[in-house]
Amino acid sequence: MERNTGSGATRLGIACGIGAGALWGLVFLAPELTRSFSPLHLTVGRYLAYGALSAVLVAPRWRALAPLLTRREWLALTWLSLAGNTLYYVLLSSAVQWGGIAMTSLVIGLLPVAVTIIGSRDRDAVPLHRLAPSLLLCSTGALCIGWQAMALPSPRAFGAQIAGLLCAVGALVSWTAFAVGNSRWLRRLEHVSAHDWSLLLGLVTGAQAALLLPLALALDTTRHDRAAWAGLAGVSVGVAVLASIFGNALWNRMSRLLPLTLVGQMILFETLFALLYGFLWERRLPTPWEVAAFVLVVLGVVSCVSVHRSPRGSPVPETRDARQGPSD
What is this structure's pTM? Predict the structure, then answer.
């Protein structure tokens, strides 16, 4: 694997993070576009499409790739697919439908806090005390989110808001586990490219979606016409191509270029684009509490990036050497 070091790698990694965030932000719109279907329907549709596309793209390299994977890698792919795709998207879609795009995206925007705290334990990581200002700013932003969700008037029922908030928190926990585990596996697997790893995740996620398909159909009590099913199929394929194929490839590339304490900060861009898409969809301006949360989270991430800047002429240290195995 080609190694990139120094500020050039940091800039390229941040650019990949911005691209991944712009594409991933679209997944917050999908539940609003398919409100007549359950989150399970949307999850199964998206990941069946992702699995099929991944199978087509990985097929030409399968004979060379398969011998490189042991039982340990397949087990890792299974739990990473569940945490980062299947379970995560069921929870996220439920949070969007019950709590709204803005609340959900801002809660997911707290990923920098969780991932940075975990990443600070890695060798050569920035000490946690230097990251304290960033964590404090992001945590204060979280308080703004919670206050708005529970104290301010909303067109949604209070019970639905609380359910949406809990689902968003569950999605946050699920994706934190994925972000940390996936970053560490990518640093270990020098013999598998970031793009191939993303496609393998797609294969396993597609298999999980196929297992859930009978359950999704059995739980469907609403009659849908052909136009509704066509809409679900279009949204599923669109999200699979843009977010799962291209977005995941950019994120995996970024994960090999940046230290883990900075990787988590890049999820900010998903939050920024999701908020932008959400406000455009709802045709409204952000509330004062949303503005406050947004500004605090941005300042927190900018603070974290500044801490990771290396002195002039010196390389940016890697968080973990690729020879080291994952901690799971």
Answer: 0.74
